[in-house]
Amino acid sequence: MKTGHTATCWIDARSMDKARRILVYVWRERAAPQQAHFLQSLTGFFSDGDDEEVQVSCSLQRNQFILSSGDEGRRVPLKRASFCPIKHLSPAEAAAIPPEVRQRGVDVGVSIMLQAADQRVLLTRRAKELRIFPNVWVPPGGHVEPEETMLEAGLRELQEETGLRLDPEEVSSRVLGLWESVFPPLLSRGLPHRHHVVVYMLLLSPLSHLQLQSSLSPSPAEVSACVWVDSRLARAIVAAVDGEDGEVPVQQLPSSFSVMEVSADGALSPSLLPPAALIGRVPSSGPDTERVSTGTKYALDLWLRGLDTSKPPQL
Known about the structure:
Elements: E1 7-12, E2 23-28, E3 34-35, H1 42-47, E4 53-61, E5 64-68, E6 75-79, H2 85-88, H3 91-96, H4 99-102, E7 107-115, E8 121-126, E9 136-138, E10 141-143, H5 150-162, E11 172-183, E12 194-204, H6 209-213, E13 223-229, H7 231-239, E14 257-262, E15 268-273, E16 291-292, H8 294-310
Parallel strand pairs: 6-11, 7-12, 9-16
Antiparallel strand pairs: 1-2, 1-5, 2-3, 4-5, 4-6, 7-10, 8-9, 8-13, 11-12, 13-14, 14-15
Helix pairs in contact: 7-8
């Protein structure tokens, strides 16, 4: 990455629309902040090249989420997929995107990686009726609203989607990484009409996953199932790299996993899910399939690295 200048990105509430959206603003030294264009890759902006991952500093202050390539503050990774549609758009494809989409700007969201005391993380399957990433497994999350901190937004979305009400004083949290998300995720599946920066936040609970599960009351409008993922399953999910071929080793995995299905009235019922439903890759064409999202695989990989570094050395 070139280091001859400092680049900073603001997510500013001053330009929010009727939906109270917080949008991304980019800034370079000696220039006024500018709203990021829908067709602009923020990862590319900070790398000045073809890098898929860069290190940035981030903070949220007075409705401004500030990303900087400078050395101030704790740095976290910002990443995009190698097949990111924004990166690969041709001039003709860019021109074919409707003006109302190109004028949207880049939205901001937060996803909560809720880790139970027994080192399992909660994933939810998005309802099949949703327009964006239907039937895909992700952590609970959504848009950040003005006057919220990242943690407040994440806890609100966690409660709205799963019914879990957690006291911010009783959990510890940190940003795992940032993901540049585009939908549809590949150009072969259509021109992009959504562009987000997703903040993956790790939330550590002192309760076990069974204790947390007893308080689950998911919203059926948003969530169709829930699953608690341990490190073994997470490694298999991460190994199924989107955009690559090859077999994923699943020999050491059980033939099915326990999940909680959500009925239309919000009731939970236990069910079994084959590993293939979680260890799949993004399809290159046609409708989406049940799978773990590419951004979630990235977040799970970061989570696993943290588990590995926190383990005591072997004697």
